[in-house]
Amino acid sequence: MTSYKDKKVITIGVVHELTGLSERQIRYYEERGLVFPDRSKKGTRKYSFNDVELLMDIANKREEGVQTYEIRQDMKKEEKKRQVREEMLRGQLNAHFNMRK
After folding, report:
1. How many other C-beta atoms can be found within 10 angstroms of the C-beta atom of residue 35?
2. Residue by residue, what is the 3-state secondary structure of 2-58?
3. Which residues form the HTH merR-type domain (predicted)?
């Protein structure tokens, strides 16, 4: 079951109100590959609560002088770590319960 925080239902205008970021800044972060909104049939961007939190983190890092490239690299590293942890856990569960794929 998908968490409500993952559901992409928030429009860019509401994200702007929640974060204080301009719509231009939000679109820029999308262009830089930092956030990935869904699109409605009419092309409207839809964000999740997790996206809003991510945008706030990005904005805070930018205020500290971190470049978008560095933020993207950090995000890739974190995703890789998450994947490795998942694989390790899966391997441990498989070994413990003698499960096979």
Report:
1. 22
2. CCHHHCCCEEHHHHHHHHCCCHHHHHHHHHCCCCCCEECCCCCEEECHHHHHHHHHH
3. 9-77
pLDDT in tens, 19-65: 999 999 999 999 999 999 999 999 999 999 999 999 999 999 999 99
pTM of the full predicted structure? Answer: 0.80
- Full residue range of the structural domain in which residue 76 is found: 4-100
Residue 59 identity (one-letter amino acid): A
As to burial, measured by CB atoms within 10 angstroms (0-12 exposed, 13-18 middle, 19+ buried), residue 47 is buried
Give the DSSP letter of residue 98: T
**How big is the chain by its Cα radius of gyration, in Å?**
17
Distance between CA atoms of residues 84 and 101, nearest Å: 17
Number of domains in the chain: 1
